[in-house]
Specification:
The protein is an alpha+beta fold and 476 residues long. The protein has two domains: 245 residues, Glutamine Phosphoribosylpyrophosphate, subunit 1, domain 1; 184 residues, Rossmann fold. It contains 16 helices and 23 strands. Strands 3-2-4-1-10-9-11 form a seven-stranded antiparallel beta sheet. A six-stranded antiparallel beta sheet has the order 5-6-7-8-12-13, covered by helices on one side. Strand 2 and strand 3 form a beta hairpin. It is globular and about 70 Å long.
Length: 476
C-alpha cells in the first residue's frame, strides 16, 4: 500500500514485531523480513534490537527498510535468542534520531528494548510528573515515557510482569507494545484495543506482531489476537497470558479496516479484504450513480472499488496506473507537488476516454490528492468523474495514534460535501456513512473507535491538546 501522495493521507503510527527463538533460526534475518511485511505501517524509519543472553544491541535508521537497515549495519548484530523490530511513521516532520525505535535503555534491573504502535492521551501529564521526579529524557517519544513508568513500577513490585501491569493502570491511550527483557519477550495491548496485536509461531519459535500478514510472509502460522488489555509473556516455557486489565469497553480503530492494515491481514477475527469490499458494496447502495466504469485509486481503493462494481453492476476497470518503481520522489530540483504527482500516477486514457467514471478512494484529508486525480482523469478524456469515498468525512482530530492531529488540516471540518465537491472538481461526491462503516466489520470481536468521523472519543482527551508544550513535539 504505497501512498501516491503521502502527505495527503492519514498515517498510522508504526508497526511492531518481536520473536522468541526456541530453535535454530536466524533471528535477525527473520526480523528484517518481518519489517518488510509491516512496511505499510511506517516508512520514516526502522530498527532492530537483539538480545543475546541479556546483552542487547540495536541498529536503526531513517527511511524504508533497505535504507534504514543496510547490510553493513545488520552484520553488526550477533546471533541472538530474542529480537524486537519496529517501523516508524511520525506525526511531525521533525527528525530526531533519538525518536527512532526500538528504544534500548538500561535501568537498575538490566536492559529493556521497546517499540510502540500508538500514542498516549496522558503523555504530557506523565512526562511532567517524571520530569519533576528527576527523569532526563532523550526523545519526545511516548515509548520513553512508558519505559520510565515500567522502570519506576519495577521498584515497587516483585516481578517485571507486575511492573508492566501496574504501569498499564497509569498510562491512558492507544498502545500496542512489543518489548524484551533479559530473558523474555512481552506483548501488551491497551485495554481499549485501539491498535491490533497478535501472536503466531514460526516452527517452534513464537512471534508477537501488529498484523497477521507477517506470519504468512515468514511462512509461519497465526495463533490468536492479543486481547485488549492483555499482556502476553514468552519465555523458555512458552507463552503466558495476563488479563488483569481486560474486560472493559473495546475500541479498535475502524480506519484499520479502511486503510491502515494490509488487505491480507485478519484483525480480531475480521478479514480486512472482505471488510473493504463490503465498504464498496454499501457505498454503491448509499450513493448510486449512472456510469460506464468503476476504477480505483491504487492501491488503497481497489477492494472497495471491486465491491462497488459488484453491487452496482458497473464494470470494473483500470483507470489509473501507478509507477511502482519510483520509490519516494525527490523534490530538491523541482518542489512542485503536481509535478511529483504526475511522476507517480498516470491515467489510462484508452480506458477512460469518453466514459463516465466512478472513482473510488479510501479517504479525503486535505483534498489535494483528490483534486489532482480528478483533473488527471478529465484531461485523459473522462466525460464525468463521480468520486466515492469508502469512509465518512474526517472532521475531528485523532489522539490515539494517527497523524490527523488538527482540524485545520481536514477539509471536511471546514466545508460541506457540496463545497468539497466543487473544490475537488468532481461531478458528484459521496462518502460512506458512519453507520455503514460500522457494518463492514460486523464479525470483529471488538467494539470500534470512530472518533475522527463522529467526535465521540472513547477516552477523555487532553484540553488544549495542540498548545501542549510536550505534545507539540511528540514523535511516535
Amino acid at each position: 500500500m504505497t501512498d501516491i501522495f503521502n502527505e495527503d493521507r492519514p498515517h498510522d503510527e508504526c508497526g511492531v514485531f518481536g520473536i522468541f527463538g526456541n530453535k535454530d533460526i536466524d533471528i535477525v534475518d527473520e526480523t528484517y523480513l518481518a519489517l518488510y511485511a509491516l512496511q505499510h505501517r511506517g516508512t520514516v524509519g526502522a530498527g532492530i534490537a537483539v538480545n543475546d543472553n541479556g546483552n542487547m544491541n540495536v541498529i536503526k535508521g531513517y527511511g524504508v527498510i533497505p535504507e534504514a537497515l543496510p547490510e553493513k549495519d545488520l552484520s553488526r548484530l550477533k546471533a541472538a535468542k530474542i529480537a524486537v523490530g519496529h517501523v516508524r511513521h511520525s506525526t511531525k516532520t521533525v527528525n530526531d534520531r533519538a525518536n527512532l525505535q526500538p528504544l534500548l535503555m538500561r535501568y537498575i534491573y538490566g536492559q529493556l528494548a521497546l517499540g510502540i504502535n500508538g500514542a498516549l492521551a496522558n503523555y504530557s501529564e506523565l512526562r511532567e510528573q517524571l520530569h519533576r521526579g528527576g527523569a532526563i529524557f532523550q526523545s519526545n517519544s511516548d515509548i520513553e515515557v512508558i519505559a520510565y513508568m515500567i522502570a519506576k513500577a519495577r521498584l515497587e513490585t516483585a516481578t517485571f510482569e507486575e511492573a508492566v501491569l501496574k504501569a498499564m493502570t497509569e498510562i491512558r491511550g492507544a498502545y500496542s507494545i512489543v518489548m524484551m527483557a533479559p530473558s523474555r519477550l512481552i506483548g501488551v495491548r491497551d485495554p481499549h484495543g485501539f491498535r491490533p496485536l497478535c501472536v503466531g509461531k514460526l516452527g517452534e519459535n513464537y512471534i508477537i506482531t501488529s498484523e497477521s500478514c507477517v506470519f504468512d510472509s515468514l511462512g509461519g502460522e497465526f495463533v490468536r489476537d492479543v486481547e485488549p488489555g492483555e499482556m502476553v509473556v514468552i519465555d523458555d516455557e512458552g507463552p503466558h497470558s495476563y488479563k488483569a486489565n481486560c474486560g472493559g469497553e473495546t475500541n479498535l480503530c475502524l480506519f484499520e479496516f479502511v486503510y491502515f492494515a494490509r488487505p491480507d491481514s485478519v484483525l480480531d477475527g475480521m478479514c480486512v479484504n472482505i471488510a473493504r469490499q463490503r465498504a464498496g458494496i454499501k457505498l454503491a447502495k448509499e450513493h448510486p450513480v449512472e456510469a460506464d466504469m468503476v476504477c480505483a485509486v491504487p492501491d488503497c481503493g481497489v477492494d472497495a472499488a471491486i465491491g462497488y462494481s459488484i453491487e452496482s453492476g458497473i464494470q470494473y476497470g483500470v483507470g489509473l496506473i501507478k509507477n511502482r518503481f519510483i520509490g519516494r520522489a525527490h523534490t530538491s530540483r523541482k518542489k512542485n507537488a503536481e509535478h511529483i504527482f504526475r511522476i507517480k500516477l498516470n491515467a489510462m486514457k484508452s480506458n477512460v476516454e469518453g466514459k463516465r467514471i466512478v472513482l473510488i478512494d479510501d479517504s479525503i484529508v486535505k483534498g489535494d490528492t483528490s483534486k489532482h486525480i480528478v483533473e488527471l482523469l478529465k484531461k485523459a478524456g473522462a466525460k464525468e468523474v463521480h468520486l466515492r469515498i469508502s469512509s465518512p468525512p474526517f472532521k475531528f482530530p485523532c489522539y490515539f495514534g494517527t497523524d490527523m492531529d488538527d482540524t485545520k488540516n481536514l477539509i471536511a471540518s471546514k466545508k460541506s460535501v457540496e463545497e468539497m465537491r466543487e473544490e475537488i472538481g468532481a461531478d458528484s461526491l459521496g462518502f460512506l456513512s458512519i453507520d455503514g462503516l460500522h457494518e463492514i466489520a460486523k464479525e470483529c470481536r471488538t467494539g470500534f473507535c470512530d472518533a475522527c468521523f463522529s467526535g465521540n472519543y472513547p477516552l477523555t482527551v487532553p484540553k488544549n491538546h495542540h498548545e501542549d508544550k510536550y505534545l507539540k513535539k511528540i514523535e511516535i
